[in-house]
């Protein structure tokens, strides 16, 4: 199955609305809830996503499409957004994410990529050579994974009080291991 830029762009453009829908009614304690002491809160997840729009996805796409794709990508500081958006209200980070995402998708579409462009490669600092197709698929997958993470955080926050109904929710089952 080949990656579809059209399908990917649809998901990328829908993500800000999905973030708004998931977080709009969440009370402050749910937004600050940590599944365990090292887990991220919802504002941290969204800050990470917004930061990626600035320093990760588009710079790497541009590197692959540049005249010097052999220069390795700058490593991505996964928690850099925590500093960049420190003190911001969640809804403001979501709005910033939306603005950045629209700009990045517009930029992506301006490249008018051909199917053969998807096989161009760049150098990931950990994985080595990666294709543009893999990078774009990762961008979309990254969104889906973080939307699922936010949903899981909310499920576990509210699910703490469901009593015996926990048996019906796989996300509320105690993990063995």
Structural commentary:
This protein has 177 residues and is mostly helical. It has seven helices and two strands; from the N terminus they run H-H-H-H-H-H-E-E-H. It has a single domain (5-172), classed as Up-down Bundle (Four Helix Bundle (Hemerythrin (Met), subunit A)).
Summed up:
The chain is mainly alpha-helical and 177 residues long. It has seven helices and two strands; from the N terminus they run ααααααββα. The protein has a single domain, classed as dinb family like domain (Four Helix Bundle (Hemerythrin (Met), subunit A), Up-down Bundle), CATH 1.20.120.
Topology (elements, then pairings):
Blueprint: H1 5-23, H2 28-31, H3 42-55, H4 57-65, H5 80-84, H6 90-110, E1 121-124, E2 128-131, H7 132-159
Helix pairs in contact: 1-6, 1-7, 3-4, 3-6, 3-7, 4-7
Give the number of domains. Answer: 1
Q: What is the CATH superfamily? A: dinb family like domain
Radius of gyration: 18 Å
Approximate helicity band = 55-70%
Q: Fill in the CATH topology.
A: Four Helix Bundle (Hemerythrin (Met), subunit A)
Structural class: mainly alpha
Strand content: under 5%
Mean pLDDT: 96
Task: Report the count of strand segments.
Answer: 2
- CA(first)-CA(last) distance: 34 Å
List keywords for this structure.
single chain, mainly alpha, Four Helix Bundle (Hemerythrin (Met), subunit A), 2 strands, elongated
């Amino acid at each position: 199955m080949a990656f579809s830029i059209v399908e990917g762009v649809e998901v990328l453009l829908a993500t800000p609305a999905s973030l708004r829908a998931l977080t709009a009614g969440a009370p402050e304690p749910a937004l600050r809830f940590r599944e365990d002491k090292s887990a991220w809160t919802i504002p941290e997840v969204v800050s990470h996503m917004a930061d990626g729009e600035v320093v990760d996805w588009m710079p790497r796409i541009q590197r692959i499409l540049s005249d010097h794709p052999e220069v390795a990508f700058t490593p991505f500081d996964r928690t850099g957004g925590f500093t960049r958006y420190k003190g911001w209200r969640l809804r403001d980070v979501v709005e910033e994410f939306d603005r950045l995402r629209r700009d990045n998708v517009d930029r992506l579409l301006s490249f008018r990529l051909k199917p053969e462009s998807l096989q161009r490669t760049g150098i990931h600092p950990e994985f080595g050579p990666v294709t543009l197709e893999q990078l774009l698929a990762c961008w979309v997958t990254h969104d889906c994974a973080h939307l699922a993470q936010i949903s899981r955080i909310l499920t576990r926050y509210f699910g703490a009080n469901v009593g015996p109904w926990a048996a019906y929710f796989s996300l509320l089952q105690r993990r063995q291991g």
